[in-house]
Amino acid sequence: MNSFADQLLVLVMLINLVMLGSSRLLFSIRAVAVQGAILGILPGLIHPFSGHLAAITVGIILIKGVLIPYLISDAVRKAHIRREVEPFIGYVPTLFLGAIFTALAFVFAEKLPLAPEHKELLFVPASIATLLAGFLILTTRKKAISQVIGYLVLENGIFIFGLLLTEAMPFMVEAGALLDLLVGIFVMGIVINQISQEFSSIDTSRLRALKEE
Amino acid sequence: MALVSEPMACLLFAAVLLALSGLPGLFLQRPVAAQWIAALVAVFASVLGAYAVIQLLGGTAGAVYQLDWPLPFGPAEFSVDHLSTLFLIPLFLVTGCVAIYSLSYWPAKEKNTAAKLTFFVGLFAAAMVVVLLARNGVLFLMAWEVMAVSAYFLLTTEQQDAQVQRSGTVYLVATHTGTMALFVLFSLLRSTSGSFLFPLPHALSAAFPAATIMMVAALIGFGGKAGLMPLHFWLPGAHANAPSHVSAMMSGLMLKMGVYGILRTISFFTEIPVWLGWLLLVLGAWSAVNGIALAASQRDLKRLLACSSIENIGIIFIGIGLALVGMQTASPILVTCGLFGAFIHIINHGLFKSLLFLGSGVLIHGTGSREIDRMGGLAKRMPATSLFFLIGSLAICGLPPLNGFVGELFLYVGAINDGIHAPLPLAALVAPVLALVGGLAVITFVKLYGIVFLGSPRTADAAHSHEAGGLMIGPMLVLAAGCLATGMAPLLLVKLAAPAVSWYAGIEGDLVSRTGQQVPFMPLTVMNSLLVVLALALAAGYLLRLSKLPRSTGPTWGCAYLAPTPRMQYTGSSFSEMVVNLFGALVAPLRRRPSLATFFPAVGTTFCYAATELVLDRVLTPIFSWIGLGFSYIRRLQHGQLHIYVLYIFATLFVLMIWAH
Q1: B258: which of A208, B41, B546, B632 lies 20 to 30 Å off by Cα?
Q2: Phi, psi of A94 (to 5 degrees)
Q3: Does the beta carbon of A213 lie under 8 angstroms from any beta carbon of chain B?
Q4: How far off is chain A from B639, nearest CA to CA, in Å?
């Protein structure tokens, strides 16, 4: 089963690159939904079956794969934006950076003092690569919706890392990850709302107007 | 009521009452009633505290209370000894007076800041009581910070005013710099003695290298709070911009907490290094001379009083320095005279400086200005205030028959005694310094009293001013009566200070009678009483003669001019110009005058005179503005670009990842 998990993790990393290279928001949202659904399957693959596990799997797939993407795409429809225009760094360079960071994540994970049972798996490099991809999206994209997607990807990276700890403290990790996500969505929801009200656009670079002189 | 017989319990109860006194004002919907409740509670707490102080002075030993708190700093210990008692005497007296005074000076009916002000006044007084009772370094620092921060909120009551904001900020920076030094002091105490609890008197060896750092830290931390030169720079602005009754508390009480801290720290050590006594002596002399010279150059009523506080703190430190030098050279006369001088002056200054600040509040209330050159002729309009102000001014100049004279007499006796007996009579130089300070004080307060109360009013506001109500006059009457009574009966002051002196100097036996051989109490009492009788007789005779003569009324100092105007009168600046010029190097006021080609200046030319502050205006402000310029480059990091902020986190994470290997 572990080789299947590794294949899924490779898929997760590929989805990162897909999001980095795409300008269309709805496409990105669908990609993040697929990523969330894959993450929902992962715990079922690495842990023995139990009723609790099934509930968690279903819960994660519903929330990460259906609910949150639906909410964001709803926001996209209401705000009438279809694509990210004028990012700070273009799509091809970002894609290139993403590839470099993924490679670096592997190098870094190699050097981490991990427990022997985690050494063989792709969990740690995939987690770091997803985290860095999230950061890249956050720093290079202007639209608030892209920012939310960035936060989601970042959160997914942390979630993958948390999967390693599920045996030690299963519920806490899930609850923590979901709570973070909830806060992220809330904050960004409020920010999007406020920005579009204040500046009649949801370009986060306009936030500089709030800076004190 | 077993608790009432225990002075320590009374003191703690009084502190709690004071701290809570302003709470109703924050919650009740009826501000006037809440202010009255607060004042009555504060007065009750003061009476309770004063009762405890009387018991303690009578020889009852205070209990030791230990609070087992969950903090890892050892038990919080409260205790009281004669040194604390000495500082508690003026504290409760002034707090009670101020509580009554504020009812009329800052009435809740007219001012919506009254609730906040009342709350912080209570907290401020309570924090000072705890500072005096705390015997644990951390507890002490907590109380100290509560005191310092509530003083900040008190002095920024009128926070819309830019000047108030600036003084508040300067004060806050100064007090926290001092607190930083106190952190050094108490952490070293912890590492030296192994506990945050204050060590027993004379338990620490001064030979330990940390001892020197501890003493220097105490000098910076406590000296800054006391207003010792050159750390006095926050003081004039803070005292001038606070409401007057707050200034009275700050000057009369809070500065003394700095003095208390230094005395307390010194008492930890077995032997005092030679340099400390001389350093305190020199700093005291510098503060005294420079403080009063600064006061002479001021145009602002309250700034003048604040600068004179620096002078009085200087006199107190001269006394402490003399005593420490005396301990070093093993001359008990110098020790007792120095300590008596300092301790009596601590009580005295609490009395007369509070009186003068309360008086200045009446003047500001009546004329709406702090500038003495806009007043004049107020003696006719405010007879009671003018009498009390006169008493306070005479007392602060150290003139008999008032109490200021008693404290300074001890210092003169100590200095001159030492001059006769010591091989190298350097300490005798204190006498001429004190004489110089006394002379300058007389000039300053003649200027103040003369310009404010005599002559004719310089502005319409001054002309229409009126006497304050009984709630403001009453507290001033109490303080003025205190000044007069202790001046007429110096033995009273000596008895108040004697327990603290014998505790501090480690002298057993009947100290009062032994000191009586050095300082002539009885002739002093007789002379002072005679002086009062003489003054009263002269006044009565003058009034009697006046009533028989025919009278006509005209403008004061009219000098038979056809069309006199109040602008022909001396101004405060012109009165003190000679003195200010003499001390030009120390005070250096800013003067901008036109050059005169003919007899009269051209139309539209102006003359500008502004008192400046050497340390703050010429040293600290430029340094801080340079530092601010340097840091403005760092402020560019905060630019409002959300993405770049995320990039900071990203970069940090990346650096940490690489750094881990």
Answers
A1: B41
A2: -65, -40
A3: no
A4: 7
Task: Render pLDDT for B523-566 as a digit per residue (tens, 0 to 9).
Answer: 888 888 888 899 899 999 999 998 888 877 777 666 777 777 88
Q: Where is B119: in which H helix or E strand?
A: helix B114-133
| Distance (Å, whole) CA B419 – CA B427 | 7
Quote the pTM value: 0.78
Arithmetic mean of pLDDT over chain A: 78
Show me where the domains of chain B are located. 1-170+228-255, 273-538, 614-659
Task: Count Cβ neighbours within 10 Å for each residue of B112-151 and write b for 16 or more, e otherwise.
Answer: eebbbbbbbbbbbbbbbbbbbbbbbbbbbbbbbbbbbbbb
- Contact status of B646 with chain A (Cβ, < 8 Å): yes
Mean pLDDT of B499-512: 79
Q: Give the residue on A whose Cα is nearest the Cα of B637.
A: A211
CB of B368 closer than 8 Å to CB of B461: yes
Nearest to A208 among B641, B646, B657 (CB): B641
Q: The tokens of B112 are what?
A: 């919506």
Chain A residue numbers touching B644 (CB-CB < 8 A): 139
What mean pLDDT comes out for the span A178-186? 64
Per-residue pLDDT tens digits for B565-608: 888 888 888 888 888 888 877 777 888 887 778 888 788 888 88
Q: Which residue of B has its CA nearest to A151?
A: B646
How far apart are the C-alpha atoms of B151 and B94, rounded to whole Å? 16
What residue of B is the nearest CA neighbor of A131? B650
Alpha carbon of B160: minimum distance to chain A alpha carbons (Å): 21
DSSP of B271-302, one letter per residue?
A: S--HHHHHHHHHHHHHHHHHHHHHHHH--BHH
User: What percentage of chain A exceeds 70 in pLDDT?
Assistant: 72
Count CA within 13 A, CB hemisphere, residue B617: 12
Q: CB distance from A199 to chain B under 8 Å?
A: no
Contacts of A204 in chain B (CB under 8 A): 642-643
Backbone angles phi, psi at B222, to 5 degrees: -80, -35
Comparing B153 with A119, the larger pLDDT belongs to B153
Among positive and negative, which fits the CA dihedral B10, B13, B19, B23? negative
What residues of B are in contact with residue A209 (Cβ under 8 Å)? 640
Domain segments of chain A as ranges: 2-188
CB contact under 8 A, A88 and B643: yes
Q: Which two tokens stand for residue A110?
A: 């190699």
What residues of A are in contact with residue B643 (Cβ under 8 Å)? 88, 138-142, 204-205
Quick one: pLDDT at residue B1? 44
- Candidate from A111, A208, A211 with C-beta closest to B661: A111
Work out how many CB contacts closer than 8 A connect A with B: 37
Rg (Cα) of chain A, in Å, rounded?
A: 18
Q: Do residue A210 and residue B640 have CB atoms under 8 angstroms apart? A: yes
Averaged over B205-223, what is the pLDDT? 87
Which residues does chain B have within 8 Å of residue A140's beta carbon, measured at their own beta carbons?
643
Higher pLDDT, B307 or A138: B307
ipTM, two decimals: 0.76
Burial class (CB in 10 A: 0-12, 13-18, 19+), B636: exposed
